Amino acid sequence: MSQPVIVVVGAGPGVGASVARRYGREGYAAALVSRPAEALEALGKQLQAEGITTGWTPVDVTDQQGLTEAITRFGGFADGIDVLHFNPSAFRQKHPLDLSVDELLEDVALGVGGLLTAVQAARPFMKAGARVTATGSMAADQPWNEAASLGVQKAGLRNLVHSLDATLAPDGIRAVSLTVRGSLGRGTPFDADYVADALYAAAHQPDESWRSEVPFTGGPTTGA
């Protein structure tokens, strides 16, 4: 495939769709991964109708083998992966005294472990200049105790991205998480389209001033 390719893990109607569209405007083909098959197909067909080359595979992000196989197929078909974007997290409204260890680990397996699986699967198809991006959250620093596992996920996600960036940088591949410091909402400063613009800008930072964590405080991003 002559087009550059972005793989969006956790592609839903919000940030995932907006990221696919943002890169689609730049000529990228989008490969989508998410669990709900019908919703994923609807999104894929909608992006195709908008003129974006799009493929999709429904898979549970916590299914290591399934996710690895899906990303491997995308990478093999396209003969490369230029951007891997990781979007999913689990919202479970339980405070620490109600949250079980099994529930915490289940959520972390999605919101953090899924990134590890995705990057390991994508790495053989990524060349110098490729990028890994992730949707982070202020919950990493300011967790809401009533959804305790979310803060753990986002703190772990950011930490893992730092480690991934340090590991991949010698090969010319960089990783960055965008810390969204507000609540997502259409028509607000934290509209998914603004988040997608900020993620695109974060992925295109100059190497000499690269930051593996970038805050997003809302609104349009200059130069996006």
Write up this protein.
Strands 3-2-1-4-5-6-7 form a seven-stranded parallel beta sheet, with helices on both faces. The longest helix has 22 residues, at 101-122. The model has no long low-confidence stretch (mean pLDDT 95). α1 packs across α6 (192-203), α3 runs parallel beside α4 (101-122) and α4 (101-122) runs parallel beside α5 (148-168). The chain has helices at 15-24, 37-49, 64-78, 101-122, 148-168, 192-203; strands at residues 5-9, 29-34, 54-58, 83-86, 131-137, 174-180, 213-216. The protein is built from six helices and seven strands; from the N terminus they run βαβαβαβαβαβαβ. It has 224 residues and is α/β, with parallel strands linked by helices. It has a single domain (5-215), classed as NAD(P)-binding Rossmann-like Domain (Rossmann fold, 3-Layer(aba) Sandwich).
Q: How are the secondary structure elements laid out?
A:
Blueprint (H helix, E strand, L loop, with lengths): L4 E5 L5 H10 L4 E6 L2 H13 L4 E5 L5 H15 L4 E4 L14 H22 L8 E7 L10 H21 L5 E7 L11 H12 L9 E4 L8
Helix pairs in contact: 1-6, 3-4, 4-5
The total beta strand count reads 7
Query: Percentage of helical residues?
Result: 40-55%
The main sheet comes to:
7 strands, parallel
**Main structural class:** alpha/beta
Please indicate the count of domains: 1
Write down the Rg.
Answer: 16 Å
Low-confidence stretches: none
Q: What is the mean predicted local confidence, pLDDT?
A: 95
The CATH superfamily is NAD(P)-binding Rossmann-like Domain
CATH architecture heading: 3-Layer(aba) Sandwich
Spatially, the strands of the biggest sheet line up as 3-2-1-4-5-6-7
Shape: globular
Distance between the first and last residues' Cα: 25 Å
Strand content: 15-25%
The CATH topology label is Rossmann fold
Helix count equals 6
CATH class: Alpha Beta
Secondary-structure element sequence?
Answer: EHEHEHEHEHEHE
